[in-house]
Amino acid sequence: MTTTALYDIPGPRARRRHLTYGLVATAAILALVGWVLHLLFDTEQFTYAKWNPFAYEGIQELLLRGLGNTLKAFALAAVLSLALGAVLALGRLSEHRVLRWAATLVVEFFRAMPVLVMIFFIFVALRVHPLPALVAGLTLYNGSVLAEVFRTGVNSVERGQREAAYSLGMRKTQVMTYVLVPQGVRAMLPAIISQLVVALKDTSLGFLITYEEFLHAGKLIASNLDYDLPFIPVVMVISPIYIGMCMLLSWCATWVARKERRSPKTKGLEVAAPDEPGPLLPGGPTKP
Q1: Which parts of 56-194 are beta strand (E)?
Q2: What number of other Cβ atoms are within 10 A of residue 29's Cβ?
Q3: d(Cα 21, Cα 13) in Å, to the nearest integer?
Q4: Closest to 157 measured CA to CA, from 191, 176, 180
Q5: What is the pTM of this model?
Q6: Which pLDDT score is estimated for 272?
Q7: What is the pLDDT of residue 29?
Q8: Helix (H) or strand (E) holding 89
Q9: Which tens digit of pLDDT belongs to each residue from 135-185?
């Protein structure tokens, strides 16, 4: 029986105990799933009348249009958030005190402000259309969070790297571009992708300002009396799509984090030896 530095390998009794715990937990989960299915069947959530609307071409087009609007808002918010985060991070890393304080004030303010409040303020007070209001609110919040991610990633690079670059006569812009940012990106990527998952989920707030995104389309279907109020079927259709998109981005974050934990490998270059030894000095004898 071998052991590790952190824990002992479980023995026969511990393995039997763990197996018992696993079986009990599995039985409890199956019982919970069975109870939920019983409630769904008991309330007639799987009847033909509630699921028939999804066979209509108009309903399918409504859902696809809502999904397209969701992805459109997410794409705009993601690009603008990355750009705003980079600008604010440069401000926070600036040597000029005024720029640094101004960037810090903006970052801390919008990080503390609820996303929904910003979206409603832009939509109602500034009288902005739903899509720009949603994108602006998501950009201000996620851009402020990403600014801290960028700043932390740059500061995570060893101080000696910065000092060595300055000692070679490089300017600050060159140090950031060629030394700090390329190395900091390795630490930033998982957090950046995780924040983009948050931005994707927050696009669902658009239905509160009548933006015709995916959740808004589902709400229109679920509240239609002609379809016998198929609320639960709509949730069962929309939820897996939202979860699938978020899981895809989360999987990307996990894959990047796992990849970045691996030590980079550097391959050595073989230097070919000369076929015949040359002369030690011009015109002199060759080396034996």
Answers
A1: none
A2: 10
A3: 12
A4: 180
A5: 0.75
A6: 45
A7: 95
A8: helix 57-92
A9: 999 999 999 999 999 988 888 887 777 778 878 888 877 887 778 877 777
For every residue of 228-270, DSSP letters joined together read: T--HHHHHHHHHHHHHHHHHHHHHHHHHHHHHHHSPP--PPPP
Alpha helix ranges (H) inside the chain? 12-42, 48-51, 57-92, 97-112, 115-120, 130-155, 159-167, 172-175, 181-202, 214-222, 231-261
Could you list the beta-strand ranges (E) of 20-176.
none
- At residue 190 the predicted structure's pLDDT band, cuts being 50, 70 and 90, is confident
**Residue 147's CB: how many other CB atoms inside 10 A?**
27
Q: Which amino acid is at 2?
A: T
Quote the CA–CA distance of 74 and 201 in Å, as a whole number.
9
- What confidence score (pLDDT) does residue 267 get? 43
8-state DSSP, 273 = P
Q: What pLDDT, on a 0 to 100 scale, did the predictor assign at position 5?
A: 52
Q: How many CB atoms lie within 10 A of CB 157?
A: 17
Report d(CA 123, CA 141) in Å as an integer. 15
287: β partners: none
Cα–Cα distance between 262 and 76 in angstroms, integer?
32
Tokens of 220: 């229109």
- Taking residues 187-194, what's their average pLDDT? 83
Residues ≥6 apart with Cβ < 8 Å to 81:
138, 139, 142, 143, 146, 195, 196, 199
Could you read off the pLDDT of 82-96 as tens digits, one per residue? 999 999 998 998 888
| Distance from C-alpha of 272 to C-alpha of 262, rounded to nearest angstrom | 31
Nearest to 213 by CA among 72, 118, 59, 116: 72
Contact by Cβ (8 Å): 215, 207:
yes
Tell me, what amino acid is at 241?
Answer: I
Task: Write the CB contacts of 186 (distance below 8 Å, at least 6 apart in sequence).
Answer: 260
Q: What's the CA dihedral at 62, 68, 70, 71 to 10 degrees?
A: 160
Q: Which residues contact 158 (CB under 8 A, 6 or more apart)?
A: none
